[in-house]
Amino acid sequence: MNGPEIHIRFAPGLRLFVSAERRSGHTPVTTDGASSLGHVVESLGVPLTEAGRLLVDGRTVTTAHVPAAGETIEVEEVARPQPVPGAPLRFLLDVHLGTLARRLRLLGVDAAYESEDIGDAALAALSAQERRVMLSRDRGLLRRRELWAGAYVYSDRPDDQLRDVLERFAPTLTPWTRCTACNGQLSDADKDAVRERLEQGTEKTYDVFAECVECGRVYWRGAHHARLEAIVSEAVREFGGATAR
Fold this sequence. Notes:
Blueprint: E1 5-10, E2 27-30, H1 37-43, E3 51-56, E4 59-61, E5 72-77, E6 91-93, H2 98-106, E7 111-113, H3 120-130, E8 133-136, H4 139-142, E9 149-152, H5 158-169, E10 186-189, H6 191-194, H7 200-205, E11 209-212, E12 218-219, H8 225-239
Parallel strand pairs: 1-5, 6-7, 6-8, 8-9
Antiparallel strand pairs: 1-2, 3-4, 3-5, 10-11, 11-12
């Protein structure tokens, strides 16, 4: 590439996306003189979903800005909490984030999840169709132009993934209101109405039940409730929301 030379610096949180030589201070980049700043940033490895303000010689520009020779570029991280305008806040998770999806649903957050790999194009199209924020660790997926909105999940540990998403987007938490299996809404269920779907031990031991209005799955405070309660209590304590019941 033989064109204008600019100098670019990435915020600390973005440096995992770029090559080692670009992780400290401003580094030179030779552009083609026609590509947008958004294209330049992505070509260096940073998905635009992760880029916040773009500053050129101290002034804010859009991704459409075409860099000129000698400009100094600052690429900031997205602001937290990150506003998502234009639709109710809801998410779409790829096949690798099943545990995160279940934990978000446990907290009452609308989190659609594809349990099979339907491909990046289909996921991006679904994000646009349903106006959901795409959560993924796949940088290629997050670069797709069809996406309505997206976010990179920085950790491979479910505890850290959950904390990252809650901190970044600050969704309203309404624990125990969503089906962890299908994302449907839960409603209180009379024991007699669900009795035929209960095992004998469950029927004798428990009296309070909830039922998914979408898939019909029945919930009660079983053996795993204490572990789930701990996840809910910690999230509510740190990020706010309805009191766990």
